[in-house]
């Protein structure tokens, strides 16, 4: 079961409430295995969960927030003894930041790529030529045009 | 964990390989086909979507697009060359099977496209290679052993996680790459922080570069002559990223990077010249047994 970031609980208040406050022991196990915590000085999944639990996580929304340092490695997800899924909390905060138009540019660029072309990244002419030479099928996706309709309006 | 034994799959190419790393895609297709695995293409597949950047924009949209990819064509298993695709599609499949609200939402959207929710199994190609019997088959097809080559295996994060959805190998201390490398005759050297992330998915440059440098130093210190991995993002981080890091800091690691499938093709007798190794930024020419 997903406790946060699900279709109905994406806003900061609902993340800050119920399930997580009950679940997190503040044991810090997630921090011990977290590469983003180890290789930066202001990223700490325990603290992120705690701030959300306490309803003081507003500073975590935005393009300059430490949440973007997370590598999505899922180590916290595997190890958390309370089933908190700290990565889901980070993702929910990222989703909120995107909605508020406050996220790193790469997120909007890649999202637009995917929705427009079905593929993240652009197929350069050189890449297309090499693919052809190697006998690989074209890189374009026939699914382009179908994705826009799937997204939005919750 | 050894359940990826069917011999026919739909091939899911993912984005980074199809737009930038055709040589990687070539090697994955070739080694699977050389082992008698048949692959069917489906041009309707889109981005999985990726579990890092796209998912950061909207988990709902991530789930709906993943549901579309999963639902295109019944239950024929899907094989990916990218752990991110396999992890993302597997996690989406788990959510769709466990979360009724999410499934109903996705089903409603797919209905408009004339599709019904399907949940085929999704495997990374290392899992197909690791299935019962395939190691023996590989061993019997190796004509050019890579004896003596010292490699640093890098697993990355999404090959085995989230384990509840992926269900392959040990989630934090996997062994499949070490085993495959050994079948080819190469030696997987132990090194510090072997299971650490490459850093690539962090959207913070300094965090990402710090992890890359740490891993490269550990691999070098352990005497590795090359890096072996099976993720296109890790590949870019260690290949292009290593080149940029060396340029910036003056460090000299010069550790060539191979996709496991490239080594497999070479060991099973592929013409090295046809594999596109010249596309690698860190030159592979001097690697013993390969150049
Ligand atoms: S999120 Fe989990 S691992 Fe992290 S402090 Fe809370 S209980 Fe411990
Ligand atoms: S998923 Fe993110 S928060 Fe969790 S351990 Fe990995 S880097 Fe840290």
What's the SSE blueprint?
The complex is a heterodimer of chains A (154) and B (291).
Chain A: H1 12-15, H2 18-23, H3 29-32, H4 35-38, H5 45-53, H6 75-79, H7 86-99, H8 105-117, H9 125-133
Helix pairs in contact in A: 5-7
Chain B: E1 8-12, H1 15-20, H2 22-34, E2 38-41, H3 53-57, H4 59-70, E3 78-80, H5 83-98, H6 100-112, E4 122-124, H7 125-130, H8 134-141, E5 150-153, H9 163-166, H10 176-183, E6 187-188, H11 205-221, E7 226-229, H12 232-249, E8 257-259, H13 260-267
Parallel strand pairs in B: 1-2, 1-3, 3-4, 5-6, 5-7, 7-8
The structure holds iron/sulfur cluster (2 copies).
What does this structure look like?
The complex is a heterodimer of chains A (about 150) and B (about 290). Chain A has about 150 residues and is mostly helical. In chain A, about 45% of the residues lie in helices and about 0% in strands. Chain A contains 9 helices and no strands. Chain A has helices at about 10-15, 20-25, 30, 35-40, 45-55, 75-80, 85-100, 105-115, 125-135. The longest helix of chain A is centred in the middle third of the chain and has 14 residues, at about 85-100. Chain A starts with 11 loop residues before the first helix and ends in a 21-residue tail after the last helix. With about 290 residues, chain B is of the alpha/beta class. Helices cover about 45% and strands about 10% of the residues of chain B. Chain B has helices spanning about 15-20, 20-35, 55, 60-70, 85-100, 100-110, 125-130, 135-140, 165, 175-185, 205-220, 230-250, 260-265, and strands at about 10, 40, 80, 120-125, 150-155, 185-190, 225-230, 255-260. In chain B, the strands form 2 sheets. A 4-stranded parallel β-sheet of chain B has the order 2-1-3-4, sandwiched between helices. In chain B, strands 6-5-7-8 form a 4-stranded parallel β-sheet, sandwiched between helices. In chain B, helix 12 (about 230-250) links the parallel strand 7 and strand 8. The longest helix of chain B has 18 residues, at about 230-250. The radius of gyration of chain B is 19 Å and the shape is globular. Bound molecules: iron/sulfur cluster (SF4) (2 copies). One iron/sulfur cluster binds near residues 26, 29, 30 and 49 of chain A.
């Amino acid at each position: 079961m997903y406790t946060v970031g699900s279709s109905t609980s994406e806003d900061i208040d609902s993340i800050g409430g119920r399930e997580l406050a009950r679940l997190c022991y503040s044991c810090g196990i997630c921090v011990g295995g977290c590469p983003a915590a180890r290789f930066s000085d202001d990223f700490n999944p325990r603290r992120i969960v705690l701030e959300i639990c306490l309803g003081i996580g507003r500073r975590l929304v935005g393009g300059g927030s430490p949440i973007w340092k997370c590598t999505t490695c899922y180590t916290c997800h595997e190890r958390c003894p309370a089933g908190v899924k700290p990565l889901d909390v980070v993702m929910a905060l990222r989703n909120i930041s995107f909605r508020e138009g406050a996220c790193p540019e790469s997120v909007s660029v890649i999202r637009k790529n995917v929705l427009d072309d079905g593929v993240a990244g652009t197929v350069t002419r050189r890449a297309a030529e090499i693919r052809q030479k190697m006998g690989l099928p074209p890189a374009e996706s026939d699914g382009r045009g179908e994705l826009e309709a799937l997204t939005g309006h919750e | 964990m050894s359940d990826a034994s069917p011999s026919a799959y739909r091939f899911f190419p993912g984005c980074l390989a199809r737009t930038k790393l055709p040589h990687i895609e070539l090697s994955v297709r070739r080694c699977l086909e050389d082992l008698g695995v048949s692959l069917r293409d489906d041009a309707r597949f889109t981005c999985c979507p990726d579990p890092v950047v796209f998912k950061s924009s909207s988990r709902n949209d991530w789930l709906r697009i993943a549901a579309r990819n999963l639902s295109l064509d019944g239950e024929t298993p899907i094989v990916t060359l990218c752990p991110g695709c396999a992890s993302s599609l597997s996690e989406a499949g788990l959510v769709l099977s466990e979360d009724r609200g999410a499934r109903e939402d996705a089903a409603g959207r797919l209905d408009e496209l004339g599709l019904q929710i399907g949940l085929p199994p999704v495997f990374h190609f290392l899992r197909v290679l690791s299935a019962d019997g395939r190691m023996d088959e590989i061993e019997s097809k190796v004509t050019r052993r890579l004896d003596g080559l010292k490699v640093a295996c890098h697993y990355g994060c999404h090959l085995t996680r989230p384990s509840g959805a992926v269900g392959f190998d040990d989630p934090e201390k996997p062994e499949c790459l070490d085993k495959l490398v050994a079948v080819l005759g190469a030696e997987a050297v132990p090194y510090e922080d072997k299971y650490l992330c490459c850093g690539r998915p962090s959207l913070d440059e300094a965090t990402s570069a710090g992890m890359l440098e740490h891993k490269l130093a550990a691999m070098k210190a352990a005497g590795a002559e090359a890096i072996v991995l099976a993720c296109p993002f890790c590949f870019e981080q260690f290949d292009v990223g290593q080149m940029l890091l060396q340029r910036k800091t003056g460090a000299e690691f010069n550790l060539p990077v191979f996709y496991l499938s490239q080594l497999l093709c070479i060991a099973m007798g592929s013409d090295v010249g046809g594999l596109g190794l010249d596309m690698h930024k860190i030159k592979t020419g001097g690697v013993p047994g390969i150049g």
